[in-house]
Design a protein that fits this description.
Length: about 375
Amino acid sequence: MPTNTGVIVKQTSAEAIPLKAQLEVAVVGTCTTGTLAASTPTRIRTKEDATTILGAGGATDTLPKAVALLQRYGCGNLIVIKGATADEAGTLAAIPLLANDRTQLGITPQVVLCPSFNSTAIVAALNTIVDNIRAIALIDITAATSVNDALTARDADDGVGIKDNRIVVCFPHMQNTDDPTKLEELSVHLAGILANLANYGQSPLNQPLKGVNGTDVTMSLSYSSETSDNEKLNDKGVLTVNRNPDGKYVIWGGRNSSYSEGLTDVLTFINAIRARDEITRLVEARSIKFLSQESNFATASLLRESFIDCLSEEAAKRAIKQGYKATFNESKSDYNAGKLDYTIEFAPWLPIELITASVSISVSVER
């Protein structure tokens, strides 16, 4: 019989993080390796998909790098698309093709990225597509830009200076833990963080970044000083970073590019825009079921109850707050014309609970 006692330790290879984060994230960029066809939205669900479809990636390819980073966060519902040419012109031409995702892939992205590209033309194209599909676009201020130059760029009204609820501007680039010379776009980290939030109504504020240990430019970081670089950037509508007491980097700021210092508009919050989009999708789906019904008060009341039920389900998930309302506007409706008019109101969860503001959606159901 064996007489040895003690502890036996065996070394095994580490298992990859399961790709369970299902937020629909679309990445537009360049790729010169793999099997990815140009101008064709393509789904990536697994590590194997990424290896086959994207290959190892060329020196200036943006898609393989971005997908690898998103998969670090467990993202398993990615859409990639490249243009006919591996440059800005090709990328610019590919962005509008995201409108085809619903018909070609059966899904519509909720977050759109275009890593390494942030010209005025690129941002304008992103702005158009996210308005069209009800999503948000994440862009980065160019690597190695100083904090002062980043603040100056935000004063413009184009490119990274655009003021829009659906555009999120990120700064700085992050240094990879294993190779500090390898810079990673903060926007891609943010997309991974959004994919891992409990629901669309949660803010990314203070969520940790994975696999980074520095910024590409020197920055002063603080939770309390109004003169720190991260606070100056946040006041200009830039999503940036901070360091928690453990020294780990976290997202700092949950606002989009339409924010400016002191503004209390609820729609400057990323999660407020995402909540409005999600509730709109749910309301549309329920409204469609009533299109074939006779237009009268009974139908109007049933549809209102359906809206209330929808909001109740989302509040139970803590995606939105309690206190939601669905109002049938009989004075704006026309039974003879088959038109029913409603107002939907709800409040998202805000990082600053002193701001109590609701989001309103106007619904017109017409047969």
